[in-house]
Amino acid sequence: MGFLSSRNTNITDNVQMRHATVEKFLWEMRRGKRFRFTTRQIAAFTRNYSTRLGFGTVFKGTLPNGLAVAVKVFHASLDQKTEVAQFMAEVGTIGRTHHVNLVRLFGFCFDDAMRALVYEYMEHGAQDAYLAGQGHDVIGLPALRDITVGVARGIRYLHEECQQKIVHYDIKPGKVLLDGALTPKVADFGLARLVNRADTHVTVSGIRGTPGYAAPEMWKMSGVTEKCDVYSFVMLLLEMVGRRRNFNEAAPESQRWFPMLAWTKYERGELKELIVAPSHGTSGSAAAAGATEEQEQQSIMEMVERMCKVAFWCVQQLLQARPPMSVVTKMLEGEVYIAQPANPFQHLMAAPVAANLWTTTTSCSTGNGILTAGTMETKGA
Q1: Euclidean distance between CA atoms 38 and 45, whole angstroms
Q2: 0.85 surpassed by pTM
Q3: Which residues are known to be catalytic?
């Protein structure tokens, strides 16, 4: 792979990094240069892995030039084949990209003792952890919408603007990181795959994605397109709208799965009931702009409706009905009209055909006489 080719594999010296300014370092990143580090350097950057970031084997570190980084060390419990496959998947995808809404890869370590990736450090960490914690009571819907737009732009870049299409396969809140300004960046490309633009469908090996976010076709492992990322993206979006997990087992049965609840409220013209304002501060930017409370509420209502209509198009059962990410982004930004979505959950509501055979009043001929629905058990008694 080009990333690990001989011209890129010279070990980066600490003195060289110390003498380089952060600006020069980042400039070289933009030119596509990646740095190769030793196991000893990785241990020094992370102070012997003293500060773990969230779950997994990701540690905070500092390069000799003072730049904060996050170091992802591949799990020792993984078999070597899986470990190398995930390492190469990340290197081969995110190593080819540069976009404000994709986490930036600075360098790597690859030897017999260790495989590690060195990424830019994201101050607020994973989106789901931040919004469930310190950001829960202060982040209003306009800021949440801005985060979703940023994520949409990042996925749009992967699907439509790279030289080769990149399908992430595991978009979810835990794979979106937030910097100090709440700029979202899509991360963790361990399941990602490069796809030729001429390919309409891809056969995947093994189940990918996370239950609750993965598109239905992912479980079939065939006929998969980049539209699986579109589906997963709006599962993330809907959690932003509801400020809750999409599935809540403790909720009343009719409210357990938020996507269905949102559709029901939309059909009844009751989307206003979904709005949950933060408990501290204002609910949005309209108040800061001098708008009245009524105008602010109207703005929030329009935002919720727009986000929900986008979501309902993106979770359509028919893959061709889901819009591409370029259109999704424009819809969220208010640049295009959003047509009335069809019920995306109709297939879950309709009675299965097989069940209809036993619930209709049509008589069925048997070898011993006539069997009608509702009398099947008694006739055989």
Answers
A1: 11
A2: no
A3: 170
